[in-house]
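Worked example 2:
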Amino acid sequence: MRKSKLKLRLCGKIIPAVIMLTFLRFPMFAEPQTEQQPNLTEREMKRYSDLEVDCLAELDLLIDEISEAAYEAIEQAAGEAARAAALALLEREAAAMREAARQQAEAQRWQIEADLRLQAVKEAKKAGVKNAFIAGALCLIGGLAIGVVVQNLHP
């Protein structure tokens, strides 16, 4: 309650001051003036001195030189940007080619390894057939030998 009374008293002091300031005729808070500047008529034509005319001519020349330099700088920057874009494109293309070559080398390595394994399987099959033929021949010869020996033992 006490705080609200103090705030009301403070507001009671500020409000009259603000109301009085609104009746004064000066811009508040650095507002721009709204009055229009008076225009010169034909009779009141402004005369420029030779120094002012020379300064304006020099200023025009300076503006032209700065504009020309700016155009040249823009063209140079555009050229450098185009060159940088081309180099970036070449770099990406080279990286892609390196990656393709690496993948191709990896594929060739796997192909060679598969061929070697296939060759080993073929050799193992040949050796298996050869061993089976030798084992069959030995069994046949052994069977015949045992048959002959058994036949001779039992007359």
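The two ends are 143 Å apart (CA to CA). Helices lie at 2-22, 50-153.
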